[in-house]
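This entry is set out below.
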Amino acid sequence: MSLEEKAKATAKNIEGKAQEALGNVTGDPKDQVEGKAKQVEGEARHAKEDVKDEVKKNLH
């Protein structure tokens, strides 16, 4: 997994958690949903990079 892509995925996940927490505190369902969506996006990015790493590993 490229370090840059891993960092981006982690940042997206953290951003989502913060936004969801803000939505929980303020009671804003839009922030809650957007925060959860960003977390899912971050997890998907991690999964994509894991697949790429596995393919590279199997090719060598």
In short: The chain has a mean pLDDT of 93. The helical segments are 3-26, 29-59. The longest helix spans residues 29-59. The chain is about 90% helix and 0% strand.
